[in-house]
Write a structure and sequence with these properties.
This protein is an alpha+beta fold. It has one domain: Gamma-glutamyl cyclotransferase-like (Hypothetical upf0131 protein ytfp), CATH 3.10.490.10. It is 15% helix and 32% strand. It is built from three helices and eight strands, in the order E-H-E-E-E-E-H-E-E-E-H. The strands form two sheets. A five-stranded mixed beta sheet has the order 2-5-1-7-6. The chain starts with 13 loop residues before the first strand and ends in a 5-residue tail after the last helix. The relative contact order is 0.25.
Length: 146
């Protein structure tokens, strides 16, 4: 892991936001970040305090990240993006339920704003935590069964 001095930081007029699914680089909703001038700071992971679910009926497909008891979940790969304050407000205002923005704990102890899901939304959703992230889950979902 890089130290704070070498890790890319948001500028004074920016907010860092962690994305976990359809907003990741190369995924269908990434353009929502880039069109607002978002810039990728780093790829990292959460603390092992989360479960990741494939939400039923979302289009494009999206995951939901649910915080659980400390060390009772999995570390999940995320990307941290920087958005200017005004763009952050516009981005967050457009987040549809059951998703929300909360504070995520990272593996290195930092806290950053990021996507979470309402607990009610995981009813009937598939727990995909063991994949370690949305990108890994989507890659296996596209691989034909042997």
């Amino acid at each position: 892991m890089s130290s704070d001095a070498t890790r890319p930081q948001p500028a004074k007029d920016e907010v860092a936001i962690a994305v976990v699914g359809a907003h990741l680089s190369g995924m269908p909703l990434n353009g929502e970040l880039t069109s607002l001038g978002g810039r990728l700071l780093e790829t990292t992971s959460t603390a092992p305090d989360y479960r990741l679910y494939a939400l039923a009926g979302s289009n494009p497909p999206k995951p939901g990240l649910l915080r659980v008891a400390q060390r009772q979940g999995h570390a999940v790969e995320i990307e941290i993006w920087a958005l200017r304050m005004e763009a952050f407000g516009r981005f967050v205002a457009a987040v549809p339920p059951p998703l929300s923005i909360g504070t995520l704990r990272l593996a290195d102890g930092r806290a950053v704003k990021g996507f979470l899901v309402e607990a009610e939304a995981i009813t009937g959703a598939r727990d995909i935590s063991s994949f370690g992230g949305w990108r890994a889950y989507m890659a296996q979902a596209k691989t034909p069964a042997l």
